[in-house]
Predict the structure.
Amino acid sequence: MIQTDMIQTDMKQTDMKQMTVNRILCFVTAILCLSCDGLLTPEPTASISDSKSIYDEKSAGAALNGAYNQLMSSGYYGLGFDIVPYLFADNVKFVGIQTYYKAFVRLNGYGPTTLQSDNSSLSGTWTAIYRTVNMTNHIIEKVDGVTDDNFTQDERNAILGQACFIRALSYFDLTRFWGGVQIVTKPTASPDDVSDIRRSSLEDTYKQIESDLKKAEELLRPTDSRIYIDLGAVQALTARIALYREQWDKAETYSSLLISNSKYSLVKPYSVFYTTEASTESIFELNFTATQTNPAGHWWRPSELGGRYEITLNEAILELLEDPAIGGNRADIITVAEKSKQIYNGMYWRSGQNNPAYLFRIAEQYLIRAEARAHLDKIEESRADINAVRSRAGVPDIETSEYDARAKALQAIENERRLEFAVENHRFFDLRRTGRLATVLGETEGYLFPIPIDEIAKDPSLTPNPSN
Amino acid sequence: MLVPVSVWGQELKIEGKAIDRQTREPVIGATVSLINGKSGVVTGVDGSFSLTVASLPATVEVNYIGYARQEIEVYDVSETIVITLDEKVNLLDELIVTGYIQQRRGVVTASVSNVKGSEIEDVHGSSLDQKLQGKVPGMTVSSNSGAPGTSVSLHIRGTMSINAGNSPLYVVDGVFVNNEALQRIDNGGQVVNSLADLNPNDVESIEVLKDANATSIYGARGANGVIIITTKQGKLNTRTSVSVGASLGVSKVRKLWRMVDGPQYAELTNEVFLNDGGDPAKIPYPDPAAEPSYLEEKLNAIFRTGLQQNHYVNVTGGDTKTRYYLGVDFNQEVGTQKPDDLKRYSLRVNLDHRISAKLKVGTNTGLSRVDRRISLNGNNTAAPVPSAIYPPANIPSRYPDGSYVSWAIHDSYLAMINDLDNTSASNRLIGALFAEWTIIDNLALRSNWNIDYNTFDEDIYYPGVTTTGAARGGLTTSARTKRQTLINEQTLRYGVALRDVHNLSFLLGNTVQKNTSSSRSITAYGFPSDDFREISSAATPSSVAGSSSQNGLLSFFGRAAYDFDGKYMADFNIRADASSKFGANKKWGTFPSVGLAWNVRKESWFTAKWVNDLKLRASYGITGNQNGIGNYSSYGLWSGGANYNGQSGLTSLQLANPELKWETTAQANFGIDGLFFNDRLQLEFNLYNKYTRDLLVSLPIAAISGFSSITKNAGEISNKGVEFAVTATNIRKRKFEWTTSFNIAHNSNKVEKLDSPIDQYSWIRIEEGYPMFSFFAYKSLGVDKQTGDLIIDDYTGDGKITADDREHIGNALPLFSGGLGNTVKAGNFDVDIFFSYSYGNDVLYMFQYMLQHGGTRPTWGYTAEQLKRWQKPGDETDVPRLTVKGNNYSLRNSRFMEDGSNIKLRSVSVGYNLPKSLLRPAGITAARIYVTGTNLLILTRYSGTDPEINVAGNSEQVLGIDFATSPSPRTAVFGLNLTF
């Protein structure tokens, strides 16, 4: 004890000495530069300090916008997370030059890839999603403590509910790429805050996701919006997760809530959902603008239309889409450039790169319910759901004879999903959760992407995946 | 004060004239006085003087800078006496600027190199730093690109820092000038060189301060060395002299890239298809020979003969109280790559005036404007070179309807050279205003008020014919950046000599510096037609950005020096700096240094006659660094602009680090200076050891934090090296002189401590235990003769190739580097040949990696080297079998590392001084015509265009990566200088 005291005294003396020196220097400084106030303590004007981040109604709303903005970042739904899953499946071929995307693509849609754990697209996605998580952690931690009389409980609930949803979605997307991950639920103030966090099991990660989703379900209400998260979006994600977790009853219940909701309907023809902004098809889409652009289309569009032309539809999917009995009017996504005759994906038709990202649309809920019902042996009801989607695409109904057993139904649903979401990010995840990776893609069953090697280097508690 | 002596009694008048022994020209401005007399007179424009004396005989002495002191006994006043003066060649008395003071070289204890303005006159280059290549031992200079006025990588004694910058501090006439580019618009990795704003013709001398003793007076900014640029001054009591110069030159690229032609491309493409199991009936090019080739046409359209012109006028002179220098210049460089073009207009006024014997005021002010038209560079997919040569050779430049073809990720190269408008304009004011008060003899107080004000305007307009513009109906970005440094500085100097042998000098000073910078940029699209290019005509603004920030620096410094009769020297420097960039409790840093020297020659026991001077030096000191990091790096910050749906949003930008403090470098230096054989052999030797602590690093942190890095003091770097320079006058005759100078330096760099590795440009890894600029990728062990597959070193030995198998495969830093110059003066002719060299630096030929892709980048053509691919069992080659599968072409590997060692014939110049007899009638004092060639020859094993170029001239963490950046051209310049 005595020793400690002595050390403290010494430190105080040093501090005092330092303070005296500082005072003298400050005094001299003051004399020398009467005109330069704050020479050594300038206040930033282009950014603000931590303490001024979330402190009233307006800044809480701005922080939520910031979380949406993170969802739109180029590692996440702005590009990387959106396109990597279909690059890794069997609908596109690679015609460009960028190796970090080329590494995901299989020659003729089957066989090994050259993906390595130093892939920069993967690490970009990892970083982008955790940035999103950190933003939501700030909101969830701070909104309740804001003292602002104008900030009503309803407004607080709406902001908190959306933040919980975004965090749930973020962790769900992390599991879709990497399985169980490290869970951080507090905002980071220093790098030490996140040291020694081990990866949670997939089950525990789902528990975190479901708890956030449950909270969002309690806090959010239905709204008219399709570009902001409301109760509908929560139900859609709940249904999707139930499908992934093979909780068929729950999947059926939640998808039914949406299908029966008059806010949502299948638009006809197929192309209407991407040619119209926030069509009734949409449950939640990210609204990219001229200033917050979505570069995904840039990677598809031919050079003469201002793009990079790195990816195009492969022969297999073209054949399927162009068959009127299979693709129907979904062939509208096949777009051909005038001069070079290069094919690109017409979903990204807006030249200003302000194409939305379609996170949840009602067609998926029909197919979720079809699949859940097939598993629940409600084959005929399942057939009705898949036919709703087919009929919108202008494709003949599947006959009962082709859809009279669970196995047949599941195969039909898999095929339908391949076409309905030809260039949306479902197929690789669908094939993994149904145990079909080896058969369809020649990939290891249960394949998870390698953990970015740089992250393992920075964080000893992060364990690699088998694919590392 | 320069009034003729008035003497009691009868006055005798001595009439005389002072002339230069060699040129027989009058010496103007020399002081003539009676020995032990208190004052004297000054020679006039014809060298004449008259002096009154009381009695004869009298001893008259003549003193003038640059000439040896001359004494003459006068016995008779009846005729004009002629005093011939010898130019002083004593190198020890040469004045060296060493941070706030001038010192005689003989008593300098620090390691300082000096380059005269005249030494770099004949080297072609639009910026000063570029001209210094190979001139200073221990300073490596390489041009990042061949485009006029682009950045140069310049390192003094290795690289000390990761994020805080490795550029030295530049001081122009006492003004700390900014050498960072203000550029905001990305041109493909290259940035403008802000030192191109200076007119090299204005430069009198350049001093490079290398060791801690020399630089610690600059404390916080001294760690990377200091380059002091002194501009020309007039001389008191000289007649007006006018120099004009004009030069014209041409330049041409030395070497370009070799690609496969149309038929070869078709063949390779077929081979990829078949190797990957394609159906032979469906091969992409059934008749390869029929494929056309457009490569030549494309390269010829992009590259042209560059043009240079430089015109300057300098006027200098002075009377008894005022001296002045006036310099103007116009410089233009039309680059070899279309549409590169640089124009500089500059004006400099250096003036000082003695208000009284005790008070002097003056200014050194330079104004300049640099207009650039910029060609986008290598790492921009729209840049002309990639757009032309990356697409396969059989892709034409235009569609049949005449419209431009843009291909894959590229724009049309024709649109880029004909239609893209990419311009910038730099307006720069570097000014110093000073007053100096001699309080008593040897005690002077000087106050400086300095400014470096720079505005940089950039405009880029992509018209509808470009790919970028096509999608949006024309797109423009307009950026305005402004940077201002204000400095107020006081120095108090005192010098005293006690009993003629104890020389003491003191310096005290303070500096207050405030830097502010701001930038605004707008991107907008949707123009009514390509005739409208101003932002105001655009329909939609797509991004509006703006920022401003400031930092401040407050410093106190002092220096004390003592020498005993020029035999034993000791000095001590100290500077305390406070920077606003650091954490609240860490702002102040103190940087001391000490230097000792012993002039052995001056010892009485040292008798070797052939040794004219021999000095041993030692110094140790600490300097700091705060460059490169943001102004608010220690703060936890949130920024706006993270909007959604047009509603403003916030995002967490950076983590706070209140512990952020100075990066410091301790340096020990040991040196020997020697002069031998009547000053005909000059040697300099230096040995140093530098150790940098508390490296300012943008340290990668686990991304689960929501951040990818934090600015932190986290690491240590060491640099150890040796430098040697020799200048020998091999032959010195009246009409013939041959001088050789040679320098060589070795530096060994090592990152001693770093918490986690930092990757740059996917190829470079900064990691503990390795030098900076180490390349990190898979190691290729060659191509399997039987299968044609690339063998990758399984570093971990686990039987599979994963990212863990990457290794350090090379380094971009040279083992040693330097220069070799030879100057011959024969009669009126002079010839100068200068080589620079670098040994042991590796270059990553990234262009090969990208374009020798074996089919994996289907929209690109191939380099000619691709033709050496493995085709059948037994083929011995290092180019693997063509395939898009597997690792043959998918991994970054050592196959593309090359030895970048080189010897460059930097300059050859031949000049002729017209005889005076011819000129005098025309009223011309001197005239010189010359021809100079620059970069005429490169001897290197490197297979690319130029081993010096660097794809990321905008990054201090990248070196030695060649990715289709335009190479330095060969230049030939013809010029004429006249002095009246």
